[in-house]
Amino acid sequence: MSREGLISVQRLSEIKSLLAERGLRPRKRFGQNFLHDQNLLRKLVDDANVCQGDLVLEIGPGTGTLTETLLDRGADVIACELDEGLADLIESRLGDRVQLIRGDCLGRSRMLSPQIVDALQGRPFRLIANLPYQIASPLMVELLLNHPTCGGQWITIQNEVADRLLAEPGTSQWGPLGIIVQWAGEVTKLANLPASCFWPEPSVSSAMVAIRSRALPADIDPSAFARFVTQLFTTRRKQLGGVLGRDIVQQAGIDPTWRCERLSVAELVTLFQKESSRPSDPGF
Q1: Considering the entire predicted model, what is its pTM?
Q2: What number of H helices and E strands is found in the chain?
Q3: What is the pairing mode between strands 198-199 and 34-35?
Q4: Other CB atoms closer than 10 Å to residue 57's CB: what's the count?
Q5: Which of 55, 91, 152, 177 has the fewest CB atoms within 10 Å around its CB?
Q6: How does strand 185-193 pair with strand 206-213?
Q7: The listed CATH number (3.40.50.150, 3.40.1280.10, 3.40.50.2300, 1.10.3430.10) that belongs to domain 12-213
Q8: 232: helix, coil or strand?
Q9: Which of 178, 172, 80 has the alpha carbon at shortest distance from 125?
Q10: Sign of the CA dihedral 196, 46, 72, 102?
Q11: What are the average pLDDT values for consecutive 10-residue runs of the chain, which has 284 residues?
Q12: Extents of the domains making up the chain
């Protein structure tokens, strides 16, 4: 299909028709809720500032609604689809205009699949996707920590997850996910999405967010910092001095009677650096 022949953003009636023609239906086990609001789809692509020749990774293209919007902007799209029926639909509808990868986007140890890594070829790229809810958190973290060529992520996710990404210290939603993402990126909420924007309508509310990647400091191992924060928050109700030792906590300029849930990202980084400088692992 030529660019000139590309149809406009798919409406709900067309999404239903495309599926019905192939005997397909949304599969709950794959988290399939198709975003059909044309204005919101364009808002996502506009905020990502997609231009001719940009490389975009899309996870869960479904019937190709967002895919076609990206192609219409001139993007080179790598689309990863787990559902074989939908992968067949994408292949027949878009052919070689999109690089289609069949299978799970995350492989062993929740790392980006080797097929996607090979397809990216080390080029700068962005993730733009209506993400299946169950893979959103591990995928966000994987791209931020282990793929420096990813310039950012423009995604739809559960509103609850978006709130965790934007949480502040001292709140109940402040935890490892938000800390890791805020350390490695700049998070902006672009829109709240009512259930009516999707078909079938999900039982939870959704949000559209942008995560612009930061350049990570060379002297900090991103995965080690993530493990430190995750482990520390398993003791979130305990005083830091009792978990890590008063000396280490005081060396970081932090009151040892505090709990980890009140620490800022900067304070957690300082604490991690002090903890990492110990002669031996305290095994907290």
Answers
A1: 0.92
A2: 12, 9
A3: antiparallel
A4: 25
A5: 91
A6: antiparallel
A7: 3.40.50.150
A8: helix
A9: 80
A10: negative
A11: 52 93 89 91 96 97 96 97 97 97 94 98 98 94 98 97 98 98 98 94 94 96 98 96 96 98 98 88 54
A12: 12-213, 222-276
Task: For residues 27 and 20, give the distance between their C-alpha atoms in angstroms, rounded to a whole number.
Answer: 13
Amino acid letter, 198: F
Domain 222-276 has CATH 1.10.8.100: yes
Element (H, E) at 208: strand 206-213
DSSP string of 20-88? HHTT----GGGT--EE--HHHHHHHHHHHT--TT-EEEEE--TTTHHHHHHHHTT-EEEEEE--HHHHH
Whole-number Cα distances in Å, 16 to 25, 32, 182: 8, 13, 38
Of the candidates 237, 220, 228, which has an alpha carbon nearest to the alpha carbon of residue 268? 228
